[in-house]
Hints:
163 residues, two-stranded antiparallel sheet, mainly beta, Pnp Oxidase, Chain A, 14% helix, globular
Amino acid sequence: MQKKAAAITPAVQPTPIVIVSCRDSQGRDNALTVAYCCNCSFDPPMVMVSIAPSRFSHHMIKETKCFVINLATKEHEGVMQYLGTKSGRDEDKLAKLGLKTEDGRTVNAPVLSGFPVNIECKVVDSIVTGSHEVFVGEIKYIHAREDLLDDEGNILFDKLELL
């Protein structure tokens, strides 16, 4: 079969859509939907999230240098839609949705308790890449539902129905 030119857009798909939660220096929590998220280092374990500077959460992560990646499953589709279309500048989105949080164990950011996997990250670097800033986060702690772990504590991703 012949190939032809495709539209030039970010073309590495699929990638999971995640919810990134963060806290500002005054203790105000927020969360947003992030489509650009991936692994970027095996040793030390690191991930990266890409957030537009216009987003309310951007300054929070710049300020506190930490965030939590909350893996969203199909049951969180409505939450993901809401967090991706509303701004924390206008309302407390977590309260509006009734999302339960707990403090991170290693970072000063909220963990969304109702999500099956939460990845606490400390920002070690960032780079502006056009429309977004990529925050590189070293993984400091991972919360995972017990039924999603094998005997060695590895996450069984095939059991998750990620968005």
